[in-house]
Amino acid sequence: MPGAELVDPVAYAPWWPWVSLAIAVAVVAWFVWVVRSTRAPAPTAPTAPPGPATAPPAPTSRRDPYAALRGTTLARLDEVERRYRAREVDTRAANLEIRYVLREFATARTGVDTSAMTASAARADRRTRPLASLLEGTAVPTFAATSRARVARSLAEARKRVRAW
Asked: Where are the stretches annotated Disordered (predicted)?
């Protein structure tokens, strides 16, 4: 082959660098999408419910600022009682609903998140102390395997506390 001429290699087409750049951008975009779609959103600071539900009542006010909240809560307790009497829920479920309604009332009334508060934690905070006895009273029928608790008594105590608090 000494007599043959050497030939330069064939050049690439001018569009190949653009294809490689597009592939690199697609891979980076895919990684960004995977990371963003699999991460939980950043937790936000809890905010207090708006309006007078979190503010203490004015000492000179003759009108009850929590009257609407009390009415709503009592209506929800009436609904729990109706569902229990209609046998839509059993004793355990009725007590769970009573606890849920009372926790929401206490949260709106005090501004303290009571959604996962235990009875001892409620007793330790002076703002939520009235909730502690109700949580203890509904704990056994809610979590025990068997219970002789009466839903009527739990409802009566809950209504009494809502009216007085």
From this structure: 41-66
pTM of the shown model: 0.57
Distances (CA, A) of 130 to 57, 86, 90: 17, 30, 26
Contact call for residues 125 and 112 (beta carbons, < 8 A): yes
Residue 43 belongs to a domain: no
96 is a domain residue = yes
Domain membership flag for residue 111: yes
Is residue 70 packed enough to be buried (19+ CB in 10 Å), middle (13-18) or exposed (0-12)? Answer: middle
102 lies in a domain? yes
Taken as a whole, the chain contains a residue count of: 165
Domain holding 87, by residue range, is 65-164
The total number of structural domains in the chain stands at 1
Query: Is residue 75 within 8 Å of 158, Cβ to Cβ?
Result: no
Q: Are 128 and 114 in contact (CB under 8 A)?
A: yes
**Distance, CA of 130 to CA of 95 (rounded, Å):** 17
